[in-house]
Design brief:
The complex is a heterodimer of chains A (about 180) and B (about 210).
Chain A lengths: L1 H26 L2 H24 L1 H10 L8 H21 L3 H24 L19 H30 L1 H6 L4
Helix pairs in contact in A: 2-4, 2-6, 3-4, 4-5, 5-6
Chain B lengths: L5 H25 L18 H4 L16 H19 L15 E2 L2 H9 L4 E4 L3 H6 L1 E2 L3 E2 L9 H5 L6 E5 L7 H11 L4 E5 L2 H7 L4 E2 L7
Parallel strand pairs in B: 1-6, 2-4, 2-5, 5-6
Antiparallel strand pairs in B: 3-7
Classes of the chains: A mainly alpha (about 180), B alpha/beta (about 210).
Chain lengths: ~180, ~210
Amino acid sequence: MGCVGKGRNAGRTDEPSRKMTEMKNMLQNKYLIFISRCVLGTVFIVASVDKIANPAIFAEAVAAYKLLPYALVNAVALVVPWLELVCGVFLVSGVFLRSSSSVMFLLLCVFTVAMASAMLRNLSIDCGCFGTAHATMVGWGRVLEDIGLLALSVHIFHFSQITQGRIQNNPQTSREGSFS
Amino acid sequence: MTKASPTSFWHDIFTIVAVSVFLALVYNVFSPKSLPLIRKPPVKILAADSMLFSQERSQSDLSRVDSSKQIQRSATISAHQDMKEDHGTVLPRVKREKQVGYKIVSLEQVNRLIGEHRGVLLDGREAEEYDKGHIKGARNIPYLEIDKHFDELMNIPHDTLVIVYCSNPECSLGRDLADFMNQMEFHHLYLYDEGWDAWEKAGMPAEQTSRPGK
């Protein structure tokens, strides 16, 4: 009886870890990572184009947040859209995946904190997220969007190297989507 | 499983940042819409009472005839600088020599202008903000949806005295609307820079809008 009881307990404790493994397997599916890369990369590329085309308007949006020293606003407004574009292109094309997603993670953290602080300060300002083409006010919806994108960047960062390593070590298992 | 070394990871990040900065600088040099790398604060020109409240003057004379030539000259210079720094190349159609820009009016001046039933008051914030509360008699022209309101602006005679405002000096929607209207060749533009927040705090006449279905 004791053995049976032990067996049952062992089954229960294995259940969460089995689910974890299943979830991990799902997350490291190469197609899912590819979709994450495409979504995040495309969002960043689309967001950067209008800002690059109209730097003065983006600089106004950055200045409106009142977080940066006035003198630095233009430099930031010039460089950030190019960072977005370069990272977006790298991500979509599958180059520098971990470093691109890290830079994106950092950018998204800054955007999220900036927007949350603007909301808390009751600033009624243009979010500057996608330039003037899709101008919208800052809002908690935008903050949530950024958090969603943050999750994608973490997903890519965490699993892209595993996928790369698996492809190099064992192409057969890679195709089957199983890690062990 | 192969692991990228930390050195190459940081090297890649450095590469990404360096490439981006390089591209940004090169693009900025050759772009017709280039920005100065170090930003200078906009010059704010205050509207003098003598300019706003001269009884003999008609509204169309306001910008031309002013006792203070210095104010007019400095306004022109400021507009010129603003154009050069912030919007000079955004809309190249505008002739810079004609550019007068807008001047800043205080709460008292706005209140007096409203009391004298002069000019048009425009709220540049989005409709939701406007509905919650706005200066009494103000019309809503949300700058973020300016395309939808272009005809409305065109129907306002261009020599009308126009006061625009947003929430506070940090909010750029009022400035943006004033700039936009300036490019539409409105001649008598004033920005109430303190905005709705200061107006509400001072307990000045205000009203709310209730829209059906909201």
